Amino acid sequence: MIKTTAFKSAVGWLMVVIFASAAHSQQHFKKWTTADGLPQNNVINIAQTPDGYLWVATLDGLARFDGVRFKVFNKSNTPEMPNNRIFSMFTDTAGRLWFNYADDRTVVVYENGKFKVFENGRDFEKGENLTPNVRYGIERNRHLLRNPEMMVRAGQTEYVYEEGRFVARPAQESAFPARVFATDDYSVWIDERDAIYHVEGEKITRYAKDAPLPVAPKNTIPVDFAEKDDVIWCASGGILTNGKLLSFKDGKLKTFPKVGEIYDLEFDVKGNLLVSTLKGIIKVDAATIALNNPANFPVTDSSPENGSKLFRDRDNNVWFGGSQGLHLINPQSAVTFYSEKSQPPVDNVYPIVQDAEGTIWFAAWTNDRLFSYRDGNFKAEYGFILTSLFVDSHSRLWKGRDGEISYRENNRWLPVDYENTLPPPWNSPAVFTGKLAFITEDGQGNMWFGVEAGLIRYANGVSRLFTVDDGLPSNVVTSYLFTRSGEMWIGTSAGAARLENGRFRAFTESDGLAGKYTRSFYEDADGNVWIGGHDGGLTRFKNGEFKKITKRNGLFSDGVFVILEDDAGWFWMNSNQGIYRVRRQE
Fold this sequence. Notes:
The chain is built from two helices and 54 strands. The longest helix is centred in the middle third of the chain and has 6 residues, at about 285-290. By secondary structure, it is mainly beta. A hairpin with a 5-residue loop joins strand 24 and strand 25 (about 275). The strands form 14 sheets. The chain has a five-stranded antiparallel beta sheet, with no helix packed on it. Strands 1-54-53-52 form a four-stranded antiparallel beta sheet, with no helix packed on it. Strands 3-30-29-28 form a four-stranded antiparallel beta sheet, with no helix packed on it.
């Protein structure tokens, strides 16, 4: 979803479970206004660039939104912007952001982190106004326009943007700009797979794809529509006309009751149809849409805010603007929070792990419980201040705390202490001591325990304790990482270390680490190692060099206790200030 998002809570270690099935069905809205950093409350258009940023066009400047903060661009701080009153905006297929102004003769592109302005008469010849590709945008509905390229037209010549400039070519009599379009008489044209249909009231005229049409593409404008299960939904007469909804499939038309003056349409992730009208947002639930029956068509007033263009981001969240700020429609939350007030009561959660059968295990310190979660059900057992959970290569679950380690076999916990040995295949006497930070296993099947007195390895029936005498920055071991190339990194209270030829090489603040106390590690797809600090920020180790990223660079918090990356390239991290995310490429 957006570049940076923070989930703030009063409790730093709140249990968060990401399950779409646990979502609420009620429609929710979140709103941002000038009080939150928006330059102006009249939101004209919304777009998203490939880096995840949401861009908000207003009548008093452009805002880039990372989910937490707005960065405003206007005439005073961005000389490339002729004025602050943006008319339309979209991103093209290359991910460039384009916007223009009410005069339709000046366009600005945001590309590779820079703005550049183009003017009619200087960068392309004077002539007709900008094409509908610019005038109406495409990012709010990805299917809206067929050819989302930046182009202006002057007579029989059109100018297409290529490699930083506009290149002239003969004007092409291209296909119609959208699957649904309108003409000056407010009639609607629908381009289906087999033919093009002209809708005039209840009258439908079918034209073969190769037949000449009584309208030229340049005399049409795109019409917003929404499509589900091959059914096209749009407003009769285009937009802001009589407010009737149309559904169209296989050449058959259905007309539905008036719902208000329709401005835009979009489906949310649950299949509900959201209709933006001049009086607000109307919702038609998924069951009603599936029936597609004009005689049974209940609607719900979802928002009293004046409607505007709807925008669906890459995560299928629906946003809208209007005269009262930026709004996010969140019909289902993918995040369920569990705290001391939930059932079961959960608070101060440290270790979390998923076993081979898919059960999630986590320990809650406040009520001394070890919880398991599977198929929507929680089970609890005693677990006093557990600091580590781990599943080994033999699918055994391990748990540990200060001075105690156990493993689970045949639904029983078996202790490992001074009078017992580790289970097969290690069969080694247990010699661990001190406070336990982690339990893990390397690619060769050796077991490792991070404790307050150093790092313990069990290999071939022999145990070994690594300490500062072996190169560790400190004996207080906190975290670890095994890289894909076989390297081992260890975090301590005084820096990080890498195992090299049986001895550790220490790295500290003087080498470029962001802070002394190392809390976490992560290796990205490119083999770079990321190091999270307790209060110093984030460090990237790439090609033998360290680079620090802190709050001064825009990080939400200097606490980086855990680093996880999702499939979209977002780093998810937590701290005492809450959970936050940032795109790795940034």
